[in-house]
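Weekly sync, protein design subgroup
Attendees: M.S., D.O., the rotation student, P.L. (late)

Item 1: inverse folding check
M.S. brought a backbone from last month's batch and wanted to see whether the design step gives back something sensible before we order anything. D.O. pointed out we never logged the input encoding, so this time it goes straight into the notes. Structure tokens as presented (126 positions):
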């Protein structure tokens, strides 16, 4: 089991970079086919996550804050962290959002993939 916090933060940053670069292929390679996302708008699948990038990047920048790793088994881990991201808007100002995120990463077929993510909006003072 790869139990290094920095290893899983690196995987998570690859997802953020895919969102920043509008890279659907990178995003797809990081998510399991049965990925489940839990958001304030409801539940989302891998296809829903990829659809976010239909028109390109959805964020301009992000910063990951405090984080914690919990080993769930020999080849599965839960990463919980805070992140501040600036989401791009088609009209009006971009929106900076504070999120608390829990992602579950599992090793499948010798590859680490994100199988679950729950995003919770935090309170900001912007």
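Designed sequence read out in the meeting:
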């Amino acid at each position: 089991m790869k139990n290094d916090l920095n290893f899983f933060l690196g995987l998570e940053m690859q997802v953020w970079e895919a969102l920043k670069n509008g890279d659907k292929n990178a995003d797809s390679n990081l998510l399991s086919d049965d990925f489940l996302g839990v958001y304030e708008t409801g539940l989302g699948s891998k296809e829903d996550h990829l659809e976010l990038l239909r028109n390109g990047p959805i964020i301009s920048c992000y910063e990951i804050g405090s984080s914690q790793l919990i080993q769930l088994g020999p080849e599965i881990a839960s990463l919980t962290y805070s992140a501040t991201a600036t989401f791009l808007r088609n009209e009006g100002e971009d929106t900076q959002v504070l999120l608390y995120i829990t992602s579950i990463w599992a090793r499948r077929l010798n590859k680490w993939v994100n199988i679950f993510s729950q995003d919770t909006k935090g309170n900001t003072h912007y």
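Discussion: The beta strands are 31-39, 42-45, 59-73, 76-87, 95-108, 111-121. Residues 5-121 form a domain with the Nuclear Transport Factor 2; Chain: A, fold (CATH 3.10.450.50).
Action: P.L. to compare against the previous round before Friday.
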